[in-house]
Amino acid sequence: MGRVPNVTRADALAALRNPLSFIAARWTPTPRTVRRAALSALVMAVIIVVTGGAVRLTGSGLGCPTWPTCTDTSLTTTGAMGIHGAIEFGNRMLTYVLCAAVGWAIVAARSEKPHRRGLTRLGWAQFWIVMSNAVLGGIVVLVGLNPYTVAAHFLLSSGLIAVAAVMWQRTREGDGAPRPLVGKPVRQLVWFLVLASVLLIAVGTVVTGAGPHAGDSKEVDRIPIDWETVAKLHAVLAWIVVTLTFALWFILKAVDAPRGPLARTRELFLILLAQGVIGYVQYFTHLPEVLVGLHMLGSALIWIWVLRVLLALRERPETTLEIPGPAQSGSAVGAGV
Questions:
Q1: How does pLDDT run across 289-325, given as a tens digit for each residue?
Q2: Separation of alpha carbons 295 and 126, rounded Å
Q3: Which residue has the higher pLDDT, 88 or 333?
Q4: Least packed by Cβ within 10 Å: which of 72, 77, 227, 270?
Q5: Rounded Cα distance, 42 and 332, in Å
Q6: DSSP code string of 194-252
């Protein structure tokens, strides 16, 4: 083991002034490390959505009845609050794990050489979304699980997943100008798929807000809409997404598209089929909690893969820096060489 260098007073001051620059000047992660850091942030974004659903499905939404503390007199849950308090407080603690994963992604992106400013900005975008959603989560508790705030909380989490997925993809490609791999009609079809997926997720939050799983055993307000009617609209949108995905797969096969877009589309189609089976089973079995939780996981995976399909339609090569050649001598220039 080599000798650990002494940390001078100047080093300590530099670390306090700008810790990211201090780390970046002394550490260069491998591209694989940066990819793994971005992937960890994406995985934690999905996990926090699933565990948030578990809080609601177990009726633990008000297990900690206030925020930012758990009770008026305790920062943490107490034994008297039972399992609901432990579940809600545990989900709050997972936010710190998510922050650590996002922070690791930011540090890795900032330390990569050469510095990719766009990648670092994607990391910081995740950080601010996490902070905003933490505050929104506190508001959800303070207003007694108002279904509209719960829906906004989930939609902001979907936004976090989107940014994390884009960052993960960007770690696997260069910073060159995007080059489309398919024609404009195919790209337009995929944008219709993205729009339909956004509507699918948004209507899904309305189903949740009107459905029987209010998030707590106490009386909680619901969106005043017949949830079965909205669930049927949700199913129609799901079939539209499935149809668009199948049409995209068929077109990509017909035009002999590159392997990347074709593979991502095929994967999305399989995830959609699995999600459809779960959705219909949970509907006809009166929404058992386990299946609803799996459906939320499926929703996150569908959103990730829709974005992966979109991002697979282009490639971004590594940027190349022009290295100036040796200076020509004056006699050579004069001779017209």
A1: 888 889 889 999 999 999 999 999 999 887 654 444 4
A2: 24
A3: 88
A4: 72
A5: 57
A6: HHHHHHHHHHHHHHHHHSS--SBSS-----SS-HHHHHHHHHHHHHHHHHHHHHHHHHH
Assigned token pair, 83 = 């399992």
Q: How confident is the model over 4-39, as pLDDT tens digits?
A: 456 676 666 666 677 888 788 888 999 999 999 999
DSSP state of 60: B
Measured CA distances, 76 to 44, 172, 215 (Å): 22, 40, 20
DSSP β-bridge partners for residue 179: 315
Q: Is 118 left (phi over 0), alpha (psi -120 to 50) or beta?
A: alpha
Compute CA distances 219 → 23, 144, 145, whole Å.
51, 9, 10
Is residue 314 classed as helix, strand or coil in its secondary structure? strand
8 Å CB contact between 32 and 168: no
Q: Spell out the long-range contacts of 208-212 with Cβ–Cβ below 8 A and sequence spacing 24 or more.
A: 208/56, 208/147, 208/150, 208/151, 208/154, 209/147, 209/148, 209/150, 209/151, 210/147, 211/287, 212/287
Written as six digits, the tokens of 285 are 């079995």
Q: Helices (DSSP H) in the chain: which residue ranges?
A: 9-17, 19-26, 31-57, 82-111, 117-142, 147-170, 184-210, 227-254, 259-284, 289-311, 330-334
Q: What is the DSSP string of 17-28?
A: H-HHHHHHHH--
